[in-house]
Amino acid sequence: MKKIVILTGAGISAESGLKTFRDSDGLWEGYNIEDVATPEAWRRNPVLVQQFYNERRKSVIEAQPNAAHYALAKLEEKYDVTIITQNIDDLHERGGSTNVVHLHGIITRSQSSKDSTLTYPIDGWEIKMDETCELGSPLRAHVVWFGEDVPMIETAARICQQADVFILIGSSLAVYPAAGLVNYVPRHVPKYIVDPKIPQMSGNSTFIKIEEKASVGVPSLVTDLLGH
Ligand code: NAD
Question: What is the pLDDT of residues 82-112, one digit of tens each?
């Protein structure tokens, strides 16, 4: 079976109602990233950070996968598929994909604020300030903040090296180290990009460009790849 590796960003979930942040001038749902998505923000104002992610979690739980998520799941009929996502939502899994690597964590789980390897399921949409991990430290969202290590990056790089086909969907490739993953894909491998506003990036010219929204561009690319 040929291996398809797919790297997704916030754009694939935009039509499910989850906002990207580059599209809104670097703000994320009205907040400065530095105020809600960094270790300093958590030290300064944990209540604000907790509340921000509780709201994001509520939106994720209420959102539904869109045609792009469902189409990617169909690729598994004929290919060995790995999705590497920068998204913290679980819409790929709910769309039926079975092999998803979350580079930046997943908002539906909590994490110890002392040891990032301790993660837990969340009952409902809210983490309360008095909830603690087994070490007695407060629980926070299981997401990678700016300035934190990306533990899955080496696994993701190895997966990219094994690609026979590579697809990039809905990512401005502005956030490192995720953006660097494209460089691990072997040169001869066919590469596609689906984005209504194709981002500027080095090596851009080697991509087959599908300048469409994910809900349109992804199902039609999947139909082509399945040979229907
Ligand atoms: P980004 O916001 O930097 O870029 C979004 C990209 O999606 C842009 O290139 C834009 O043109 C494209 N896009 C917009 N609408 C689209 C559509 N309908 N179909 C296809 N593409 C569309 O996103 P990023 O590169 O993923 O980086 C943002 C960071 O923010 C990530 O690290 C991610 O963890 C986080 N984030 C996640 C979510 C989520 O989990 N749903 C939402 C917002 C931000």
Answer: 999 999 999 999 999 999 999 999 999 999 9
Are residues 98 and 117 both part of a single domain?
no
On whether both 117 and 209 belong to a single domain, the answer is no
Residue 188: active-site member: no
Nearest CA to ligand 1 atom 26: 9
Does residue 13 share a domain with residue 122? no
pTM over 0.70: yes
- Over the stretch 128-160, which tens digit does the pLDDT of each residue have? 999 999 999 999 999 999 999 999 999 999 999
Look up tokens 């530095």; give the residue.
34
Domain that holds residue 48: 19-62+107-143
Please indicate, yes or no, whether residues 190 and 121 belong to a single structural domain of this protein: no
Name every protein residue with a CB atom under 6 angstroms from any ligand 1 atom: 9-15, 18, 20-23, 86-89, 104, 170-172, 174-175, 195-197, 199, 213-214
The token pair at 57 is 């979690």
The half-sphere exposure of 39 on its side-chain side, counting CA atoms within 13 A, is 8
State how many domains the chain has. Answer: 2
103 vs 178: CA distance, rounded Å? 8
Return the best residue to mutate from 15, 20, 34 for the ligand 1 pocket (most ligand atoms within 8 A of CB).
20
For residue 124, the domain's CATH number is 3.30.1600.10
